[in-house]
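Reviewers asked in the last cycle whether our approach scales beyond single polypeptides. To address this, we selected a multi-component target totalling 635 residues and predicted its structure end to end. The input consisted of the following lines:
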Amino acid sequence: MMSELNEHHPSKLHGIWALTNRELKKWYKAPVIFLLTIITPILWMGLLGKAMNIGAIFTGTSIPLPQLNPQLTQEQLQQLGVYFAGLQSSIMKGAFNTTDYFSFMAVGMIAFTALFTTMFSGMSIVWDRRLGFLNKALSTPVSRAVIIFSKVLSATLRSMFQAGIIIVIAVAFGLQFGANFSPLNILGVFAIMFLVCVGLSSLFIAITIRSTRMETPMAVMNLINLPLMFASNAFFPTKFMPDWLQTIAKFNPLTYTTDAVRQLLIFNTDWAQLALDFTYVGIFAAIVASIGMVLSWRFLSK
Amino acid sequence: MTDEVIKAEGLTRVFNKSLVAVDHVNFGVENGEIFGFLGPNGAGKTTTINMLITVLKPTEGTASVLGYDILKQAGNVRNVIGLVPQEYTADEDLTGYEDIILCADLYGIPRDVAKERAADLLKLVELTDFKDKKVETYSGGMRRRLELACGLINRPKVLFLDEPTLGLDVQTRAATWEYIRKLKKEYGMTLFLTTHYLEEADALCDRVAIIDHGKIVVVGMPEELKHSLGGDIITLSIREDADVSELIRTVEHVKEVQNEGDSYRIKAEYGEVTAPLIIEALRRKGYTVTKLMLTEPTLNEVYLEYTGKSMRDTEESREAFSAQRITMRRARA
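The resulting structure, written as structure tokens, was:
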């Protein structure tokens, strides 16, 4: 009886690539959207990274020299210039662990991309619900878990691709790799992106799957996005933040993600710190993804 | 297995612990028939379908599809059914062909089989020439046909159609009915459809269940239901100024006569036979019939009779309303 009715014996995971690819196609088959996902990080890096030329603040030209009497000799001025240049790079090194703010910030963009791309994965499930596609999929033998995981997977793959683009653009803009950088480290970047995106998009899907309108999840996202972004080390080191903010940043998975990417790309890699970053993000992803998927799965089986 | 392909027993769904959308519904759908759920918006039609297709769990009661319990054997049910939803679910950003293949993948149909079936189905719904165009360029009728094709990709034994012609203009609607009949003939399925269009139920269904406020009011063949109203309506006027109600009442098959001032409203069985008899009886007494109209009852009269009101729009959940609005808008695109 069974074999007659279910002639193809699909596996438990069937449909996962079809559903994931459906999401991805909307992106890579639409030239405008695809182009925008490339231009956006360029703009961000170009404007934010280059405009906030923090290094320049600490150069001789921006600090007025006291009028000394007697006048400094040409030689003394030169020495002072060298001293300030050294001061600048050691201030930058002390604050950002690299002498180049642009490199620091460009890497922060990667975490930023993860956050925003996964946020939209949550949105797309609201559309699927409103347009009836979700019901249609639920009436097929595709498992509920596959429906949810395909959303997570497509957001993750997309973020990873965008991370790659950001690295390429940042290098073109003058990203300075760390001393012990090797091309293999890029794989490490993808690995940490995979973990954090699986975690974040499961979280966002669990939040949005219950709403029937776009406005509610949008408001929730806006509420949690900016704090997640700025209570992290993505654009500024946490050590100069007030204590309470540092505490928040210490629990923020984006802090660990960004740090991992920095350790891999622009810092002199601190392996112990990198291991801690991976452990933290890994545990975050495992816990949040399980909770998110169970919540979503329960909702779909109501 | 019995001849009953779908069997619902005390099927009930309560939302938010208070809103009874479907209220202890019992019905059976026989093999090979087109069974229609007719009722106004918000009567519980879509909720019933969603329970039968295992998307919603019943609060109480259960149902079986092809002998599989919708709760305990949901996986089996999903394998043997197809769905043509109320909304246009085909992805606008994909081509028609890609959408069909996507549906095939959801059923785990191997690619070579899927390609063959997709080609057949596209031909059947006459979309072969448009298969590589994005769905966003399709008209309402084309989208509907694509949904039909998608719903058939797994060769379902039972096909569920939720408001299959919602928002379509009259001509496209009639054309869509033709496609539905054609597909049914080709694949020999049992069809379960919901509609709030009386003409649709009348034109398409072998049997109709009228549902109102979550309860089935009456079930029967459209003809049977219309007949149960007690026949046709004859409206006539005479030249003379006299009350002939009693005289008309004596004519065979006449069941009810109402004097409405300048005309008489007569309920009679076999109206086409009775009308000449009435004219004859009146003429023999010297009266002249000046006007006569014969109306056969439509499902609208049936609906009126059983629910006490005309098809009305009830207040709906905002979600259903907005989904419907999107569907309507796309249908007109």
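The radius of gyration of chain B is 24 Å. We regard this as preliminary and will revisit it once experimental data from Aim 1 are available.
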